[in-house]
Please model this.
Amino acid sequence: MLGITKKFGAVTALDRVDLEVSQGAIHAIVGENGAGKTTLMRILYGALASDDGTVEVETHAVKFGSSREAIQCGVGMVSQHYGIIPELTCLQNLILGAEGGPILRNRAAEERAKMLATRMGFEFNWQAEASTLSPAGAQKLEILKLLWREARIMILDEPTAMLSPADANALFVSLDSLAKDGATIILVTHRLPEVLEHCSRVTVLRNGKRIDEKAVTETSGSELAQLIVGGALDKPEITSSFRPGDRLLEITNLTVKGNRGDIALKGVGFNVRSGEILGIAGVDGSGQRELFESIAGLIKPVEGAISFAEQDTAGWTPAQRIAHGLRMIPEDRHAQGVVENWSLDANAALGLQRLKPFARGGRVDEKARHRMAGEIAERFNTKHGGLNLQMSSLSGGNQQRFVAARSLCLNPRLVLAFQPARGLDIKGTQKVYEGIRDVCRSGSAALVVSFDLDELLEQCDRVVAMNHGRLLEPEAHQAMDRDAIGRLMVGAQ
Model:
């Protein structure tokens, strides 16, 4: 890719960017949210047209008018925004658009699907509706689509953002095998350890420009971090000791059914005190989702109690819980956190529209909403072209910054944060956790789920583990011991 330029109105997303990737390489592209990484990849994939510049694939000049043309040329992409249709089965989603003819041979298709999944270390119920998939499962299915279409150039945009550490490691083992077989893999990521451990070269973008390209063996995490942000990165000041207050959230013997009718939570009990950030570690699908949905009032427990500030929440609607100070950074911002074709203005009040200052006399106060939208965008430096623009105009990381900032406004008392740093760059991750810490030290509490155990150990005051619907707490002398918590995550006490 030579001299790639792309403008959106007055905003220059890419400014004469060059990118050269060798066959059989795993090549990383890194940069802050809004640096132009995804835009560059969407141009390569034919989903966007560049304003200037040229593209060559396997020495041939190409100009893709659509993603279909890119796929036919062997270029495939898994974006942060999944293309899964919930009502279709996993198998139907896998082959959609690449059926190979007018007659569907389901048995042969399923056999090939099983073979590809085994190759990647994945497992699926191919006849189940895709609506039953977790976000991590949907991510895996999207990756398999590339193999189904026999892509030779595979673009993966934040592929491990929703994967557990074990799944992420298995993915990279498979990607390394694909690269050795001649596949070319372009990895867009914010996780520098992944770059250093699994990639051969790395390109750094900043503010739409290519800053540098290096062999991974000739750089370091600290150097890449400085290239990404344009200078030294200040380390956050974390107070190691704090005094938790009264119990703010108390869960007693909570038993909950999952969306398949199975028991997803099995007699879970714990408490969170004001001032405390409690981290929940665990392999994806261990009951974390059902726990958060129960606390938010989205599903009704089979048994057990949830008390908030010594009040039984049984019978409380989600709106009542929000009115009492519950806030949420959802796992899937697109399904649960934003309406993409609404403006930033309108999204600022989403879920909070009944609270002051958004509400006035039973109606939304538009002036107050506009003011709050500006404050929300400013809190974590969300990059945007105007509060009146659609949420879809923002990069994924900037959408996450906006959603996280909204969850911390209007005096939250309990913050449920599910993968709060998903898709965020170094500064974004730092700022969001600083924001969570600030509201907690002011008397609130936070419950954080992340599939990155190191992130939880670094950011939380206490970490527990979930395994097959049960909550397990390490011994006091191993409270923040990585190996001990890791064993609890897989049920090996």
Notes: The chain has a mean pLDDT of 91. The CA atoms of residues 24 and 182 lie 4 Å apart.
